[in-house]
Amino acid sequence: ETGVTQTPRHLVMGMTNKKSLKCEQHLGHNAMYWYKQSAKKPLELMFVYSLEERVENNSVPSRFSPECPNSSHLFLHLHTLQPEDSALYLCASSQGPGQYYGYTFGSGTRLTVV
Amino acid sequence: AQKITQTQPGMFVQEKEAVTLDCTYDTSDQSYGLFWYKQPSSGEMIFLIYQGSYDEQNATEGRYSLNFQKARKSANLVISASQLGDSAMYFCAMRGEPFLAGGGADGLTFGKGTHLIIQP
Predict the structure, then answer these.
(1) Interatomic CA distance for residues A39 and B58, integer angstroms
(2) Which residues lie below 8 Å from residue A100, measured CB to CB, with a gap of 6+?
(3) What's the pLDDT score for residue B101?
(4) CA torsion B72→B77→B81→B85, rounded to 10°?
(5) Which residue of A has its CA nearest to B44?
(6) Which of B35, B91, B106 sits opposite A97 (nearest CB)?
(7) Beta strands in chain B (DSSP E)
(8) Which residues of chain B make contact with A56, given a CB cutoff of 8 A?
(9) CA A9, A96, B58, B25 torsion-angle sign
(10) Which residue of A has its CA nearest to B112?
């Protein structure tokens, strides 16, 4: 069982809905990440949190809003999404920002926007 | 900026054969880490192997080994004695020096992946 848990596993939402994705890790890691995985595209880094502070935001549209209330939890709040936002959203954590640390990934939330 | 290139979109391999998945990278960081992940159809990304840029020996983890050629900026994954359960997407990724250390990125950069199918 992965140390990073994502809920829900699947989500279908309309373009006017508001929903949230949740990620939880119990590995004692200090950094957490949101990635978007679309068909035929590389994984795209969306947000990086290190010690609960946002370190990096790769020009993600404002309809995606992250929240990191503590080092164990990460949320991605969604509102007024577009059909092209349909993708697999992966959460990951790592011990720190250094180049020696790999990630532990969750199983992802498969999002469909209708 | 960092870039990972995986030139094999898909591969078919007979069971029990060895397979090499190609990965080249580009970075201006002096210190970096290279990673391989496996993603089965369930979606979870599973860590396979890590190679540090200053490691003198190639990394090995069970049936996985990483053929690291620093001068060529190459980090190919070798799977020995492939099994049906090895069928999955495989991603090469790298991580450079973090922002606070003067690096250019603070996350893993992934290639587009290789879809490996093991045939009986």
Answers:
(1) 32
(2) B33, B50, B52
(3) 52
(4) -160
(5) A107
(6) B106
(7) 3-5, 10-14, 19-21, 24-26, 33-39, 46-52, 60-61, 64-69, 74-79, 88-95, 109-110, 114-119
(8) 99, 105-107
(9) positive
(10) A42
Residue for token pair 């090995």: B60
Strand order in A73-79's β-sheet? A4-7, A18-25, A73-79, A64-70
Interface check for A3 against chain B (CB to CB < 8 A): the answer is no
Cα–Cα separations (whole angstroms), residue A88 to A2, A34, A65, B8, B88: 17, 11, 16, 22, 16
User: What is the percentage of chain A residues whose pLDDT exceeds 90?
Assistant: 65
Question: Does residue B105 have a pLDDT over 80?
Answer: no
Give tens-digit pLDDT for A88-113: 999 999 887 666 778 899 999 999 99
Q: Of the candidates A41, A55, A107, which has its C-beta nearest B44's C-beta?
A: A107
CA pair distance A76, A54, nearest whole angstrom: 13
Contact A106 B106 (CB under 8 A): no
* Residue-wise DSSP of B61-78: ETTEEEEEETTTTEEEEE
Q: Which amino acid is at B37?
A: Y
R_g (Cα) of chain B, nearest Å: 14
Q: How far is CA B99 from the centre of its chain?
A: 23
